[in-house]
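A favour, since you know our structure tokens better than I do. Go ahead and set the record down below.
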Amino acid sequence: MTDTYARTTTSTWRNWAGNVTARPARAESPASVDELADVLRRASAEGLRVKPVGTGHSFTATAATDGVLIRPDLLTGIRGIDRTAMTVTVEAGTPLKRLNAALAREGLSLTNMGDIMEQTVAGATSTGTHGTGRDSASVSAQIRALELVTADGTVLCCSPEENAEVFAAARIGIGALGVITAVTLTVEPIFLLTAREEPMTFDRVTSDFDSLVTENEHFEFYWFPHTGNCNTKRNNRSAGPAAPPGKVSGWIDDELLSNGVFQVACSLGRAVPATIPSIARLSSRALSARTYTDIPYKVFTSPRRVRFVEMEYAVPREQAVAALRELKAMVERSPLKISFPVEVRTAPADDMTLSTASGRDSAYIAVHLYRGTPHRSYFTAVERIMTAHAGRPHWGKIHTRDAAYLAEVYPRFGEFTALRDRLDPDRLFGNDYLRRVLGD
């Protein structure tokens, strides 16, 4: 064993939620693109499959392998900032929280982001991580170039001008086309966002949904099952001044209530399901209205310490309210006891081959259950509703769809699989999950 591969291990890998495990033949932590290319060539020669893994925040087995697991912890850091082009080039294994903090120090920010920032840049973009936005889309849509190492060790530089076909697909490549080693993202001068959080009834949110989306740059809401209550959040750019949440009030809302008390409530609900509707009624009234102003990543993202499993579907935006009303009616007539709120966000149409918003304005409906709670009955019932609305499952969240279904809801599905056949004909990057969603 050389020093280059001194961090190789053979332990069991588990994702964040604990619902996916894998035991790779070995794990590698290459420290450069050349070392990574060498790892791929050796794995291919040994007949072992290869999967890169980030921080494990996917709920699917997209990163699971019995071959070589690529850990990106040595492929981190910012390669460079181009203030003329307003881009940042970052190593693929860099956690989003480090990127956001580093950009803020430089007076820069991403335009939009998801609601957590524990993922690596490549892990987040490869699975289509998104926030909510009227005009701005997922993190992947902010990519301007990327570096991809393919199965034979070739390093491809991909952008709209270079290897454009690969660029269109690899921004959300679900690990099927190669290993991303660097990403160039568009940035802008740092700005302030004012967040307005406000309780609202389910009936009002759904009847005013279109206007709430069109009148706000970023709108999202959470519906608490077994109640008619929602909590809404509107984020809009502000001239300032900054007015972050107070230390005590912020801790009460973001840590004590959203994590500490919620953890206890979920544990109680899992042990005694009959208590869940009462807990939901209390929880839906616990968070009061508040307004605060801060830099983007401190407004877009929140700590998520209560572990859960999740399913999320993107439906055409014009069908969101109908799907939500069907979901609410299903919960009300079923014996299900749902302890987690349902999250609703939006995104504009984009041009990425396998983006859940590819070619259509979309609404995202996400359902969760506390880790360790049986989820099959609930998720199956939700999936039945979402697929009736031509829903597209999030690539990193639990679903049961296969290649036959996905080929129907993605007009460019065949374009992606043809590219995969060209770049990885021997399926070096294959696994059971990709076999199901992309076919052989």
User: Anything to note?
Assistant: Residues 247-271 form the longest helix (25 residues).
